[in-house]
Amino acid sequence: MPRSSTSRRRFLGRAGLGAAGALAAFSGPASPDPSGPPRGDYPRLEFIYAAQVGIGPIEDVGDTVSGHQRLIPITGGTFEGPRIRGQVLAGAADWNLQRSDGVTVVSAAYFMKTDDAVVIKILNEGVNPAAGPGPAGRPRFTHPTFEAPRGRYEWLNQAVFVGTLTPVSKESVLIRVFKLV
Question: Which H/E stretch holds residue 11?
């Protein structure tokens, strides 16, 4: 499903990544800690894709020995970045855990299908602090890992990624994925 450059710019704009921010966003802190490494040794982030992911009604599993378990169905979606785009497949879930200390643990497993029909498995996990003061819809941080078949997207298996997960509505979340470089 090829996209025009206009629709691609519109998608990246909705994801908060206009043309200037589409490739690399971070080169380390503004003023590094004097006891830490030099600024050039801090990791940088390369934007990989943004995904609009649909979610279904939350199923309350209940209290477990680990905390309060919820099942959040993944109902599908789309993703797009400079080197990859396609659909998030329906039928997966986030086994979301609210621990007794208020920390939320994200543990989502799902599949993406690229526009050239390659299916890629994603495990997206994160530990997020208890909700505190701050704007609603603030991102949660995750660590996605990929299992891509050999070929065009094999590079996903060979890098470290970080992500943000931002609630958009009761029916969707925005996931942004960045490669550490």
Answer: helix 5-14
The whole-angstrom separation of Cα 149 and Cα 152 is 8
Tens digit of pLDDT for each residue in 40-51?
888 999 999 999
- Average pLDDT estimate for 142-157: 98
Structure tokens at 102: 């208020």
Q: What is the pTM of this model?
A: 0.78
How far is residue 94's CA from residue 158's CA, in Å, rounded to a whole number? 24
- Sequence letter at residue 15: A
Given a contact cutoff of 8 angstroms between Cβ atoms, the answer to whether 124 and 141 are in contact is no
Tell me the C-alpha distance between 137 and 105, whole Å.
17
**Rounded distance, CA 41 to CA 31, Å?**
13
